[in-house]
Amino acid sequence: LKDVIVRATEMTVPRLEEKNISFEAEIEQDVVVEGDANRLIQVVMNLMTNATTYSPENTKIKVKLYEQNKSGVIEIIDEGIGIEKPEIPRIFERFYRVDRARSRNSGGTGLGLAIVKHLIEAHHGKIQVESEVGKGTTMRVILPEKQPN
Ligand code: ATP
Ligand code: MG
Q1: Contact, 74 vs 63, CB < 8 A?
Q2: Other CB atoms within 10 Å distance of the CB of residue 148
Q3: How many whole angstroms separate alpha carbon 22 and alpha carbon 2?
Q4: Phi, psi at 140, each rounded to 5°
Q5: How far is the CA of 72 from the centre of ligand 1 (A)?
Q6: So what's the ipTM on this one?
Q7: Cα 86 to Cα 83: distance, rounded to the nearest angstrom
């Protein structure tokens, strides 16, 4: 998963620079999972793009990778606008966008997280959201580690 994070974040650098958002990766250890590297890059890129889109300028985004309970855990932590509690389950629905995002007219379709959830589930993983309005959001992706044969 280390390569996945490196490649996904590399592709987000121009967007980060545009908004002067600083970026930090905290890779505790590499974790190997089964699946399609390009799809997983797509997942992390989508989450990084959201973190950037829904954060003001001059904030910080952090990505962590660690192992827990035979799973690889990736966290994407932003200091952005946050998501209200009742909205959290809805953001994974197709075409759903929180009002603030719609009125911002950031040009999204609301499909990103629906695809992300689908891809994570195809890898037998799950996604968790922690968010506080005005403080920021943590997206946590949990993927089962590859089992030795
Ligand atoms: P796109 O299809 O281009 O990704 P989108 O970003 O609007 O469009 P999703 O990525 O599916 O769609 O996200 C759905 C909604 O969830 C967003 O419109 C936004 O309201 C909210 N959201 C997602 N990520 C964050 C975040 N990190 N901070 C705050 N709100 C978020
Ligand atoms: Mg998006």
Answers
A1: yes
A2: 5
A3: 19
A4: -115, 120
A5: 23
A6: 0.98
A7: 8
Distance, CA 116 to ligand 2 centroid (Å)? 9
Name which residue leads in pLDDT, 7 or 99.
7
Amino acid residing at 100: R
Ligand sitting nearest the alpha carbon of 139: 1
Name the nearest CA neighbour of 137 among 85, 101, 99: 85
Q: State the pTM of this model.
A: 0.94
Which H or E element spans position 15? helix 2-18
Task: Using DSSP, state whether 95 is helix, strand or coil.
Answer: coil
pLDDT tens digits, residue range 55-93?
A: 999 999 999 999 999 999 999 999 999 999 999 999 999
Distance CA 25, CA 21 (A): 13
Q: Give the closest residue (by CA) to ligand 1 atom 3.
A: 108
CB 137 within 8 A of CB 83: yes
